[in-house]
Structures are given as structure tokens and as C-alpha cells.
Amino acid sequence: MGKKVFISHSVVDRKMVNNLIWFLNKIGIQNDDIFCTSISGTLEGGKNFVEQIKNNVLGSRVVIFLLSERFFLSYFCLAELGAAWALNQNILPIIVTPITTAEYNNTPLIGIQALSMENRNFPTELFNDLVRKNVIESNEEIDTKELFEEFSKKIKVELSILRQDSKGFYVARLLESYTRETSRPLKQPPLDQLLLGDRKLISTETLWRLNGLLDIENDSSITEHWIAVSVQLCSTKLQFELGESLEEFGNQKLFAIERFYELP
User: Fold this and answer.
1) What is the rounded distance in angstroms from the CA atom of residue 63 to the CA atom of residue 9?
2) What pLDDT is recorded for position 225?
3) Which of 49, 223, 228, 237 has a beta carbon 3.0–4.6 Å from 251's, enabling a disulfide?
């Protein structure tokens, strides 16, 4: 027997999912009625977890997909999406900024009405959809206005944070940029440094503003994070490891990046 709600999400979006579960609890859907791997004890020990997921996709009243940047980089998430679509399940897709409707329409879910977490009416729409799908009943005892406002605040905070995965990589959209010349100390063996002295590497680099804040500090004075890229990019979407902090200017902070990959 499946649960009322199946939530498919990337592990990197755990905090966002926890906020979603908090909201579901408040409107009467308790953890025992939710299949979500972020809830401790969801997967039973000693049983095939793929079979558990498949059976719960099939048995749930509604399958919620949290369609974030990381979701589309997870083969397992995409497999869950394909399974729910193939089994003709009751699907409720939620688009997470900066994923766009155009990217959503490149999935098998095209044609299925999706909710957007960025929409100011998202809590209301989610509640109404769950009522229409017979997952919950409308409850006049719930102070929906206050609840929806609190949920909206939680969402706003999470949408502004870029989180790294278990391998230390971030995924970010690159927004405004400018190019500059820079000079940095050239790394050299101690003997070369002794013989030749300090030398600097002069190069051209492009500074890009990220579409959110990296999850590295609790300094509320920093409102923008930037990265320095020394090569020409063909895309404005990157997966990267964070390097050293380079500069801080006002409410902005600039970082070097290590290995990076351009994403479509």
C-alpha cells in the first residue's frame, strides 16, 4: 500500500524539501503518509530500495516532483520521473527557480500543468491542487493566510541559496558580467623564486555574478557572490568546485573556481 504523497527530489535540495514537508504536516499530511527519502525511516532496511520506490510511486495518491537544477542532473530523479509518467500516475510537478517553463517542456511532463515555487501564490495553489487531487480535505480550522505567508518566507530564503553536492560541486546560473585585466603571484618552485624573485601572471578574466548565494557563510552583509573565469565560456550555466576567496568589495564577494563544467 502506497502513501498519500510521494516526493521525488535531489538530495542537495534536502532543506527545501524539509520546508515542503513542514507545510504538508501543517495542512494535515503527516510523515507516515509521505514517501520521501529525506524522512528518516522511509526506506526499510533489508529490502531492495529500488523496489520500495517503484511500489510507492505506483501506490501514492500524488507524486510530487521538485524540479530544481540538481533534479535534472540526477539520473535517479529522472528515472523516477520517467516511471511515474509511464505508469500514468497523478503527477504534481513543482518548478524551482531558475528552472524555466522552457526547460520543463523538454521533459516527458510537457502538457501537465506545473506549479512554480517562485509564484507568490504558490502555497495557495499547492493547497488547492492537493484538495482537487483528493489528497487532503479543505479545513476551515487552518489559518491558511498566516500559514501561507510563513511558508512563502521559508521558500524565499531557500531559493536564494546555492548548495554544493556530496562531491563539493555547485551548479549556478551566470548573470551579469564584466571583463578585467588582473595580476596574481605566479606559483613557482622555491628555487625559482630564490633565483628569479617574485613574478606575477597578468591575464584577462571575466567576473560573473551568480544567481544566488553560496552556502558558505552566515554574513548577512554579503548579498552577491561572484566568480572569476579566465576562459571564454559557451554557456551561462556552470557546475564547479569553489576555489579561494579573491576579493570583497562592499556587499559583494569574489571567488576563484577550480574544476568546472559547462551545462546546457
Assistant:
1) 11
2) 97
3) 223
Burial of 38 (0-12, 13-18, 19+ CB in 10 A): middle
Between these two residues, 100 and 202, which has the higher pLDDT value?
100
Burial class, 261, CB count within 10 angstroms (exposed 0-12 / middle 13-18 / buried 19+): exposed
Q: How far apart, in whole angstroms, are the C-alpha atoms of residue 36 and residue 66?
A: 11
C-alpha–C-alpha distance, residues 165 and 12, integer Å? 6
- Per the model's pLDDT, the better-predicted residue between 46 and 192 turns out to be 192
AA identity, residue 84? A
pTM of the model: 0.81
pLDDT-wise least confident of 143-147, 182-186, 208-212, 223-227: 182-186
Spatial distance between the Cα atoms of 171 and 174, rounded to a whole number of angstroms: 10
SS3 category, 186: coil
Which residue intervals of the chain bear CATH 3.40.50.10140? 5-159
At the top level of CATH, which class does the domain 5-159 belong to? Answer: alpha beta
- Measured distance CA(132)–CA(138) in Å, rounded: 9
Percent pLDDT > 70 in the chain is 84
